[in-house]
Specification:
By secondary structure, the protein is mostly helical. Helices cover 64% and strands 0% of the residues. It is built from eleven helices and no strands. Helix 2 packs across helix 5 and helix 9 packs antiparallel against helix 10. The radius of gyration is 25 Å and the shape is globular. The N and C termini lie far apart (99 Å).
Length: 238
């Protein structure tokens, strides 16, 4: 394990009472701050795409983005925080594309599988960046919880949109989590050279079949009994 990996795996000091570290909720960003954050994300993605996880050095990120190193650390306390946010940004842009060009497929399972394969292919085209963001997720400790949660929420939103579900049941949310874990695992095994793209697709399609098992049961509407018309019955005939 490299020195950098040992540093990022080190957990923060526990908060008073032994609970997890709680980061204060930052105020909403101004348009200027949003633009600065986008530059930082693009700089981090560019460096990761060139040389992977080890190539992302915070001072070089700051120089590439045109911000002071202190400013960079106010946005992202470490490169793990930064790279997890890069993944969330990539997924967010993919989500926008999917809304413009929805996945094909007759069933929800087919649409979700196609959606996740599009997400996989977007990272497959940039394997060094993919390796960097996956490593960041693995190294992330509790201090990066908000960034990791943002990635999970983004992935869940992508899957639920493909399912066509606005108000998921607890069972559907559980299936979404299992499918999400399968997607990450398939990506990791492909990056390590232990799985082909065909196997990635097979594993994702298999996991997506869970969707069919947790479809909510729609109540059967009662059928109104057919009442005879008094004017057409035998009593009404002359």
């Amino acid at each position: 394990m490299t020195a950098e990996a040992r540093r990022v795996r080190r957990r923060p000091e526990p908060a008073a009472g032994g609970g997890p570290e709680v980061r204060p909720v930052p105020p909403p960003l101004t348009e200027r701050q949003k633009a600065r954050r986008r530059r930082i994300l693009h700089a981090g993605a560019r460096l990761a795409g060139r040389g992977g996880f080890e190539a992302v050095r915070m001072r070089e990120v700051a120089e590439t983005a045109g911000v002071a190193i202190g400013t960079l650390y106010r946005y992202f306390p470490s490169k793990v925080h930064l790279l997890v946010a890069v993944l969330q940004d990539r997924l967010q842009r993919l989500h926008s594309t999917l809304r413009r060009r929805p996945p094909g497929g007759v069933t929800a399972a087919e649409r979700v599988a196609e959606t996740l394969m599009r997400a996989f292919r977007s990272l497959q085209r940039d394997p060094r960046l993919a390796d960097a963001v996956v490593r960041a997720l693995i190294f992330a400790d509790r201090s990066a919880g908000p960034e990791v949660d943002a990635v999970s929420r983004q992935m869940a939103a992508i899957v639920l949109d493909a399912m066509g579900v606005d108000d998921p049941t607890p069972e559907q949310l559980s299936a979404v989590r299992v499918i999400e874990h399968t997607w990450y695992s398939a990506l990791i095994t492909w990056l390590s050279g232990r799985a082909s793209v065909a196997r990635v697709r097979t594993d994702i399609e298999t996991a997506c079949r869970l969707i069919d098992l947790v479809e909510p049961v729609r109540p059967v509407e009662p059928v109104e009994p057919v009442r005879p018309n008094p004017g057409t019955g035998s009593a009404g005939r002359s």
